[in-house]
Amino acid sequence: MYAQLVKSEGSKSREDMTPEEIAFQDRIDRNEKIEPKEWMPEGYRKTLIRQIGQHAHSEIVGQLPEGNWITRAPTLERKAILLAKVQDEAGHGLYLYCAAETLGVSRDELLEKLHSGNMKYSSIFNYPTLTWADMGAVGWLVDGAAIMNQVPLQRTSYGPYSRAMIRICKEESFHQRQGYDIMMKMCAGTPEQKAMAQDALNRFWYPALMMFGPSDKDSVHSAQSMAWKIKMNTNDELRQKFVDQTVPQAEYLGLTIPDPDLKWNEEKGGYDFSEPDWTEFFAVIAGNGPCNAERLGARVKAWEDGAWFRDGLMAHAAKADERARAARHAAE
Amino acid sequence: MSSEWPLWEIFIRGQHGLNHRHVGSLHAPDAEMAIRNARDVYTRRNEGVSIWVVKANDITASSPSEKGPLFDPSNSKVYRHPTFFDIPDEVGHM
Ligand SMILES: [Fe+2]
Ligand SMILES: [Fe+2]
């Protein structure tokens, strides 16, 4: 999931709620959508800004690991496909920034918070993409995990967020399929190519499991977010679903999930599997993953290097406005 | 200098002769760039045949707190719906 550790406001019991808060919760319970200018508790607004902002940042930073391979894609067709996929992620970031902005935060504020490290993006994008097979593993596993999280969020209570998620979900299955298609090609190739695919799975498996956030027993902010329907499932529920869906796909490829304890549990109707290393997860979130500095550095550089261009276009627009006003004036 | 690009609301007419529909918003320095950006952000998969862009600041919206006084008056006017009238079967389709 692209928003892994969103701090939510403490949950309130019904007796402690104001009449406005009760009416608000009732609307959510009736599955009514909350729209931008309507009354909402301050905590709902703040939590959503954090969550949607973190989600948007993840889409944008998430372009970097794949952008790394655009110039080195093995064929022109693969290159065009990867380019389209990465362009979609830019679009996802933009839909989500706009949704966050309806809550009264500006785009520049959001970017400033990303650049200063005050807002996070998903831990997954702090891992390097070392070989072409990683493009397969990212599409298959990373977009696969994102879909798991985003599909239920289409029903989230905040209208603009829900609509952004609906658009995003329409575009995501192309992402996952193009990744799996790369994996199928690699696995049907030479032993070396298949070994590359296995190596990519080995490196991305646990980071992908981390995308759903910490285990439910350590996930302190879930209750209020679930009551507000800005979180629809618990972290462990989604992680389990992801594993159950992915294991047969790995089997089809003839690849081995890097978990000796993975086994089907008939009783629960799902796989038992090993937890990722949560110490590593918290280290990556805190900024100490393999690529944190590089990713954030690339974002900050792009923002700073583009400043003269953004300003130039604004100056041009102001001048054109001025000229149009003068022309109207002369005609009167 | 750095000032944020203004926000534009984007409306797109889909393929099938429908009205322009609000699809979202984006930032752009001027209307021309807003249309170019809207093409890339909102019509990557043939979603449209025409784009309108409107500066978000130029939109006047009804206020959520006036929802009652604005819309309630039409609730009682059930005769505006054809099902209000009983037309005998012999009359045929009407
Ligand atoms: Fe995305
Ligand atoms: Fe994606």
UniProtKB/TrEMBL annotation, chain A:
Xref: NCBIfam families: PA_CoA_Oxy1
Species name: Paracoccus acridae
Transmembrane feature ranges: none
Encoding gene (name): paaA
InterPro entries associated with the record: Aromatic_CoA_ox/epox, Ferritin-like, Ferritin-like_SF, PaaA, PaaA_PaaC
Protein's recorded name: Phenylacetate-CoA oxygenase subunit PaaA
Pfam families in alphabetical order: PaaA_PaaC
From TrEMBL, chain B:
Domain of life per record: Bacteria
InterPro entries in the record: PaaB, PaaB_sf
Name recorded for this polypeptide: Phenylacetate-CoA oxygenase subunit PaaB
Source organism (scientific name): Paracoccus acridae
Organism phylogeny: Bacteria, Pseudomonadati, Pseudomonadota, Alphaproteobacteria, Rhodobacterales
